[in-house]
Amino acid sequence: MERYDLVYQLYDEYDTKTLREYQEFVDVFPAVDSRVALEHWQEANDELGDRKDEIRSAFAAGETFAEIAARATRDQAFTALDLEAKYGRGVNVLVLDVDETLRSAGSTDNEIPRETLHVLTEFHEAGVPIVICTGQTLENVKGFAIQGLGSEIVHSGELSIVYEAGTGVFTPGHGADTKQLLYEELDEEIRTVFDDLRARVLPEAPDSLRRGCHLQGNEFNVTMKPNYETGSADAREIIDDALVYLIDLLADAVGEAIGSEIGADDCRELTRAFYADQDPEIRTVLEAEGAYPDRDREAIPDALADVLERIDVAYYEADAAEIGSLELNKVVGVERALDVLGVEDPFALVMGDSKSDRRVMEWVEDRDAGIAAAPEHASQDTLEHVLRTDELVFDRGKSVDVLRTAYALNRLARLG
């Protein structure tokens, strides 16, 4: 019988919904010191075992089917079948963004749900390394990683953190390779520009920005965050102002670094024109702020353009405005993390919501090295990429749905 027919039989003939409810209860039952509660857990665990035994005895690959039915919905199981048929292999590394991917301010109270953490633990126990890939600072990521996954997993040697969107990589348990400051490998000209930016960004900011924004405590990137709830109208207004300010400050810093002979106002206008041409979202903000210059990008002197082409200006609506190095991005960080982890032939599940995550998705696609997933509220370009490839789009705060699909894929891939 074809495997698709067997999966149809599995979900048609067995109460897999109740099976999943028992499995989830057993998996995420809170640690309580209560004899009655523990007896209830034991009864549920026994019932779970009995229901799995029914499936085990009914199929040649009964153990695989029982575990899939206990964790994946019908749709997730058939998606996993499609992925296995298309790629012929399972996922051997997870590359995961955090904010608005694993957790969401809008639906998970900015916490990673317990069921998501449990599935990640199961991947770890199955020998699948985890790469957390985020724009956050290392200290922030270490804190919630240890709190959520536990110190043992974080320090197992099988977890790596790509932080500040690729400026550094932290992989505990790997000796001299544990912490790699990738920004130290940049040339002096670029480092000088960023040193200047960090020194001036707050002292020279208008009063409204100093009151309405704070500087994220990065090691390298310059990131302005709102002092308002992410996604709110106030946050959007202040981040739009911050974007214009950062572009102008960058123009000043680059102009001084290269000894440009053009005037400061011209340098600012040309820098605005450069990034407006690079990113339609930035152009939209500049137009709305009355800051879009009537300048042709072709008018930008080569010396200025050569430096700007190495520097990234990122706009995250109502969330952040950021300046980083295009030579340091999540792709560079992920490559270094995989090297340290010893993943020589990656087939990654890449999950993220932003343009920086899309670059990683495109990188794995170009190398036939993985699959991509994104939340429904991801940036337009990211969502288009995911829809064009395997359509792994999940609801806000429900990253666990794709992780369960990947779990089922790995189970099926073992059958050959």
Residues in helices, as a percent range: 40-55%
How many helical elements?
18
Q: What is the name of the CATH class of the largest domain?
A: Alpha Beta
N-to-C SSE string, H for helix and E for strand: HHHHHEHEHHEEEHHEEHHHHEEHEHEHEH
Please give the domain count: 3
| CATH architecture call of the largest domain | 3-Layer(aba) Sandwich
Pairing-aware structural class of the strands and helices? alpha/beta
Strand sequence of the main sheet, in spatial order? 5-4-3-2-1-10-11-12
Q: What is the number of E strands?
A: 12
Give the tags.
HAD-like_sf, 55% helix, 4-stranded antiparallel beta sheet, hydrolase, alpha/beta, 8-stranded mixed beta sheet, HAD_sf, 416 residues, 3 domains, Rossmann fold
Question: Would you spell out the secondary-structure blueprint of this structure?
Answer:
Layout lengths: L2 H11 L2 H13 L6 H24 L3 H10 L2 H14 L5 E4 L17 H12 L4 E4 L4 H12 L1 H4 L4 E5 L4 E3 L8 E3 L6 H13 L6 H6 E3 L6 E5 L6 H26 L5 H15 L1 H9 L13 H7 L2 E6 L3 E6 L4 H12 L6 E4 L3 H12 L3 E6 L4 H10 L2 E3 L4 H17 L1
Parallel strand pairs: 1-2, 1-10, 2-3, 10-11, 11-12
Antiparallel strand pairs: 3-4, 4-5, 6-7, 7-9, 8-9
Helix pairs in contact: 1-5, 2-3, 3-4, 4-18, 5-18, 6-18, 9-11, 11-12, 12-13, 16-17
